[in-house]
């Protein structure tokens, strides 16, 4: 399911217009991204938790040449599924 399809499903469940549902969905994803970029954790009880994680620098290989390359340290987003989401997936 892509973002427009998700917005349409939200609109059908909430009696909102598709454009309003898309606006709400965009606001939600923007707020999650802003909070995680500030190194805050976003917990949606039952669904899951978004958090910022650090990846340390490491050595990798160029798959084309086989030469060793240095991969710099970076930040990434982590997601840990909540109990209700895990239960829904494992029905």
UniProtKB/TrEMBL annotation:
<dbReference type="InterPro" id="IPR010992">
    <property type="entry name" value="IHF-like_DNA-bd_dom_sf"/>
</dbReference>
<comment type="similarity">
    <text>Belongs to the bacterial histone-like protein family.</text>
</comment>
<dbReference type="InterPro" id="IPR020816">
    <property type="entry name" value="Histone-like_DNA-bd_CS"/>
</dbReference>
<dbReference type="InterPro" id="IPR000119">
    <property type="entry name" value="Hist_DNA-bd"/>
</dbReference>
<dbReference type="GO" id="GO:0030527">
    <property type="term" value="F:structural constituent of chromatin"/>
</dbReference>
<keyword id="KW-0238">DNA-binding</keyword>
<comment type="function">
    <text>Histone-like DNA-binding protein which is capable of wrapping DNA to stabilize it, and thus to prevent its denaturation under extreme environmental conditions.</text>
</comment>
<dbReference type="GO" id="GO:0005829">
    <property type="term" value="C:cytosol"/>
</dbReference>
<dbReference type="GO" id="GO:0003677">
    <property type="term" value="F:DNA binding"/>
</dbReference>
<keyword id="KW-0226">DNA condensation</keyword>
<dbReference type="GO" id="GO:0030261">
    <property type="term" value="P:chromosome condensation"/>
</dbReference>
<protein>
    <submittedName>
        <fullName>Bacterial nucleoid DNA-binding protein</fullName>
    </submittedName>
</protein>
<dbReference type="Pfam" id="PF00216">
    <property type="entry name" value="Bac_DNA_binding"/>
</dbReference>
